[in-house]
Amino acid sequence: MSKILPAIGLISAALNNFNPFPYDAGFDIEKVTQLAVDLPSHSWEFGATAEALIELENPQFSVFGVAPFPVANVSRSKVRALDYVANNVRLGGARYDALDRGNGAAGDPASMGVFAVMLGKRDEGFANAASRTAQGLLEDVPRMQNGAISHRANTAEVWADFMYMVPPFLAYYAADQEDLGLLRETVRQCRLYREILQLDTDQPYKGAWRHIIGPQSQDTGLWSSGNAWAAAGMTRVLATVMKAPVAATNETWQQGAITTLTGYIKEILDGAMGSNHDGGLLRNYYQDVGGPHGFGEISGSSLLAATAYRMAVLQPSVFGQRYITWAEGIRRTLGRNDRNGNPHITRTGIATPAVNPLGWLDTRPFTTGSPEGQAFVVLMYAAYRDCIHSAVCSRPQTEGSGSNFGTGNGSTAGSRRMVKRNHIHRRAPHGDRRSN
């Protein structure tokens, strides 16, 4: 196992003097990060930003750190991701919604579950909420015919998005509780989701997943963000399986799970890389080459690039230079202007164009700041930095604070002052993420 584990211990510096931005991203990553913190108003957005913050600022505590288990007992005042979740969580739900009471999406509250486990080391309220969330997902939520846990609470539906919310939490919770059975069930859920969502095709995007299968919100398109949610989520599960001491108690199962998850992630990345790109970015819907849904966008592109960097470290024998080169292409594209001369990262840090974060069927590129899109860019930078520190990616010629590259004249429309987003729950039918 020691040969598989990444060398991220090189960046496990003291909390007070670690520089999270040692390399120029090609754009102002610090401003991107600030908007990722400021813009969220929904549970899954808070969870995505918290994950971005811990990977960026406290990598030793993320599952990509060299020794994330046992879970650290650390003050929330020392880890911004923990304080961020503690300040934004809405405790009080009975079971699956214990971290976001009243949420109609069963899967979304679990996006904050990893941080509830960490906070629970010092706060029993969070420990109880993490436990109730896990129990509710396993026992109360509807399931598909093959046993896949529904993303929705009121009807059985599978969403690719679920893969970033629920399996990483269940795997982390299982590792903390030393529950091999739950860890095995988590990997099984990845298989069950793949059974339903992976498209059977021989097209260049072979391996890609459809977005949603279910009676209310069905979307059989190959949504770039959905594929990114799935691949990145399974990468977090993989890192947990590789490093959780409880997994090593059954090495035969552990090695099989590592091989299986690695294969699933590779399929999705290969499908993305094989798809027809637009202006150096993945299309919002891979197969819509000539239609309005096929515009290149930053959200799925950035998170899949982050996944490629992570897998190049976790499994370098499988994810070689071809994957790094592709991820580098996405990162460098974000540091340039689009075909109309507009910067992909504006002067104020908005990553653009994104898909509408509350309506994936909106054909208009979203340019006022997507909370999840901002977080995905931060996740990409953190993975890029760690890939360099692991001596897998090449060290850039220019080093600095990570924010030395201005990107031209950009709108300030994505600032906290100008973006008004009500605290509504997503996941309603017909391409609108709001639920009733």
Automatic annotation (TrEMBL):
PANTHER family recorded: CELLULASE, EXPRESSED PROTEIN
Biological process, per Gene Ontology: carbohydrate metabolic process
Name listed for the protein in its UniProt record: Uncharacterized protein
Key word Hydrolase present: yes
UniProt superkingdom: Eukaryota
Region annotation (Disordered) ranges: 395-436
Record key words, sorted: Hydrolase
Compositionally skewed regions (Basic residues) per UniProt: 417-428
